[in-house]
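Suppose you are handed a protein chain with no further information: no name, no annotation, nothing but its sequence. What can you learn? This example shows the usual starting point.
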Amino acid sequence: MSLHTAQLELPRLFSSRAIYTKIHNKLSSDTMKKIILLIFLAVIISGCTSNTRVIPNDGIVVNDFSADPISAQATDTVRFFLDAENAGGTTAKCVTTELFGVDSWYDLTGTPIASFNPFYPTQGLGFVIDFTNGIFNGYFGNPFTGIATIQYSKQTGTSFSGFLSSSFDQFSTQFCNAFDPVDKRYFLMRYQPELMPPNPSLGRAGQAFTKEWLLKPPILPEGTNAVYPVTARTSYFYTTNAVMNIYAFSKSEFKRMVDLGQKIDYPLTISDSPGTPIKVTVVRGDAPVVVNPVPTLPGQNYELRSYTFQFVNTGSGFPLPMSGPDIPGTSGFVLATMDINGPGAFFYDCLGQNGNTVVLGADVMQGYLKLRPDQSVPLGCTIGIDRSKWLDTPKGTITIKFSLYYRYYVDKTTYVNVIGVEGLSGPGVV
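A reasonable first move is to predict its three-dimensional structure. Written in structure tokens, the prediction is:
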């Protein structure tokens, strides 16, 4: 923008030409340039600002779920509107929203919603695993498309967690494509194959998800009115990834560090995915680990260290059950893998499992996450460290990686006041 152009625009800010002329004459050329520069910078900054928020404890966030009008008669059409976004840290797969509390309502053709067949998008889904001697056999069960069997072996050169992550992505896509548009109940649902998370470094906001429904209210007799709560349940497949590093030193190396006054305080910390509803935390454990390469007693070829972790539901909803109707005691689609690596490190006993990979099934995860008052489940694991690997190793890092896979939901409710129809009476009108 040139100085000449700016001078032509400035008079619009003043009520008269005389006032503008007096002010303009008092302003030096340098002052005018500074004003123009400030205006230019303000325009640039405002143009580059975007909503790239990452919410620490949620994935999908429902910004708005509303009804219009909020007071209606049977002849009115009520529009329900949902505005959601992925404000978390990872990609949400198969995002679905279904309306509940509308069984006494009607579609636009006048067909009662109650006459539609019940639709359970989670019914019959399951995940069965068997991980023995490095061979994984399992399947994702789906009532719509049958059973998808998958198998894994360490000889493939791919990590088990990486293999499972890929299989989970394939299954979530399969599940999302299984919805049948022919089913009348389907029109109560809206879905999006995936929603990308925000990326603040690129100035990119989380991908949005806006949907609407048009319904006719219940028919009430004259002189009555009733408030109807309508809930939009938004569910999605999500993952939580976390890493914990344990610093380890040989006994002789640690003694030298102490003698030299070097740092020996290395507290346990876990780095996990930002913006995820289920978190991994560490409660207690040895840090750092000091390994004696020489057994103090014959046969003690490894050292043992115990750690307590927690899987915590910090989000606004819960993991959904995936093996039948939502009744107490059913397992949900939450499973986790834990991998350990480092000099001589292995899982000695983690819920009865050992080796370099541990698989925690849905029964272990979902039951506690859903039933405990604090929405957390403690997990104790004992790791072993092969002493022989530390004969010539002064220091190293033991890494434990966590990957959690689940389907999560959040609810949002709005209310509609339904007014009775003038001239209508009788017990059978609702």
